[in-house]
From TrEMBL, chains A, B:
Record-annotated membrane-spanning stretches: none
GO MF annotation terms: hydrolase activity
Domain Nudix hydrolase as annotated: residue spans: 2-139
Domain of life: Bacteria
Keyword Mitochondrion: no
Entry annotated with the keyword Hydrolase: yes
Protein name: NUDIX hydrolase
Native source species: Sphingobacterium olei
Gene3D superfamilies: Nucleoside Triphosphate Pyrophosphohydrolase, Winged helix-like DNA-binding domain superfamily/Winged helix DNA-binding domain
PROSITE patterns, A to Z: NUDIX
Amino acid sequence: MLSHFTVDCVIYTFHEAQLKILLTERNEYPYKGWWALPGFFIEKDEEMEDAVKRISYENTGLKDIYLEQLAAFAGVKRHPEGRILTVAYVALVRYENVKNKVKPVTSYMKQAKWYPINNLPDLAFDHREIIQLSVEKLKKRLSYSLAPFELLPEKFTLTQLQQVYEALLGETLDKRNFRKKMNNLGYLKELDEFQTGVSYRAARLYKLDRRKFQKLIE
Amino acid sequence: MLSHFTVDCVIYTFHEAQLKILLTERNEYPYKGWWALPGFFIEKDEEMEDAVKRISYENTGLKDIYLEQLAAFAGVKRHPEGRILTVAYVALVRYENVKNKVKPVTSYMKQAKWYPINNLPDLAFDHREIIQLSVEKLKKRLSYSLAPFELLPEKFTLTQLQQVYEALLGETLDKRNFRKKMNNLGYLKELDEFQTGVSYRAARLYKLDRRKFQKLIE
DNA sequence: ATATAGTGTGTATTTTTTACACTATTAAAT
DNA sequence: ATTTAATAGTGTAAAAAATACACACTATAT
């Protein structure tokens, strides 16, 4: 059969020691005035990933971001006008790079806003469920995933890295054990640079060594 | 936009100490005469999971099987007549329960056959890629997955369980370490029953304790 | 100078993983 | 009755990884 076909995008970033997701306020039937994941109908002859890139470019001003397919949602009742199949993607962006920190108004969208994942508003369609699934997937893969490094700046402190882990795992970790483990993994490069602009002891900066990371997951 | 919408099904079983997948020989354009995953167009108002159940029932005679969504495939060029979006599912069945060990001929399908995953024929569409992805997913999740127990009989020997692990991991495991680990996990029930009909020492049978398994993954 | 806020470090204990080889049991063949 | 063939079943020592835990250091602001 034929079905309407959209992509939706769970765009994550890390800001103010929190994991956040970009949501848009709908300006159209159905769910007018509700918050929803950014998404749109896919064009004829458009690859799904290109549609996702288009959407995340419109909302963050970024190209070449980290993308991962999450799942397809096609419940017959998810849209009042009949089945609309959506393929959900997870995108990870660095907050420092995001261009339009708030998205301009369009006909179908009043505003866009970053929400911490543990403080989301009511959501349109089955978007709550989609987000829930995306968190679980990130969490499961955490131990062998690039995700933390796609959310943080190129140069980050170990405390920031620990905060990303804690946000995804939903629990606090012991600082000494976390650092010991990260050092033993062997894919973090210790830099001779330090944080600036803080009113306390500046933390050392680290970088991901992508070659070593790749080798380790074989 | 509107798109054609199908589901495809990677149906796994464990037989003769091997992991096998059910493939069908196509009797229709395109890829007539090629082997392909069982799949079909989804009906209007049919839930995806119901379509998958329909397909696996037609091919195995089984209802209530273990299902998991794998991913959506929607490459513009995957079908010569234009984009056909497919959502791939993984199904796991017990070989002993499969009713029609070979599927009767239909208009669109010459025959169906179980193929060991490491000895597949050439495949239609992007089905090789779909299978590849399904193996990787099963492998990654193995340590906290019900999959091995959905592929084996209700009562199984530790050697059979080890063979499933080995087939998915693609490597051999040490027998003593494997058994020690399985016992420590604590969700295997040792039965007072033994294999029958073998011409050597009969192995003890075990069962999965689903309650304990559930508790352990929380 | 001192208050503040976050950085950075080591050791002992427990748990998990790994490496490794022989005896036990059964049915079938002689 | 004995032997053969095939697989089941078992323990220990060493290495590696995970856990629990507390205090001194440093940069800035006042």
